[in-house]
Known about the structure:
This is Anti-sigma factor. Keywords: Membrane, Transmembrane, Transmembrane helix. The chain crosses the membrane at residues 96-119. There is one protein chain. The protein is mostly helical. The chain has one domain. 68% of the residues lie in helices and 0% in strands. The chain contains 5 helices and no strands. The protein is globular, with a radius of gyration of 16 Å.
Amino acid sequence: MVHVEPAHLVELALRNTPPTDDDAEALRHVERCDRCRDELRMMTRVVTAARSAELVDLSAAPPERVWQRITQDLSRESAPARPPPSPLGRSAKRKLLVALALAVVAGAVVAGGVARHVLKRNV
C-alpha cells in the first residue's frame, strides 16, 4: 500500500490552496488507512493550535537548539543557517509558530516511519 507523503498530509492539514485531484485521491486513501488518517488528524490539530496561538505564546525567536533539533530530526544533516533576528509582526510570528509546529510533526512522522521500517527489518 502506498501511503500519502508526509509533505502532502501537511498541505492537506494547512488547507491553503483549493483542493486538486491529487488531494481528492489522497483523502480517499486517508479514509481507508488508519496510519495516514491518524497522521493527518495529528497535523490538523497542530495547525489548529498554531493558528489559534496568541502573540504572547511566541514572544521571542526560538532558541538555537530548536533549529538544530528540527534539522536533525528532518534531515540528519548539519543545521541550516538560522534566520537573522528581526522584529516580527503578529502575522509573521503566527506563520513561524505554524511552520515550527509542522516541522516538528513532520520530523516525528518521518522518524516514526524510519523506526517502523527498522523494526520490521529486524523482526
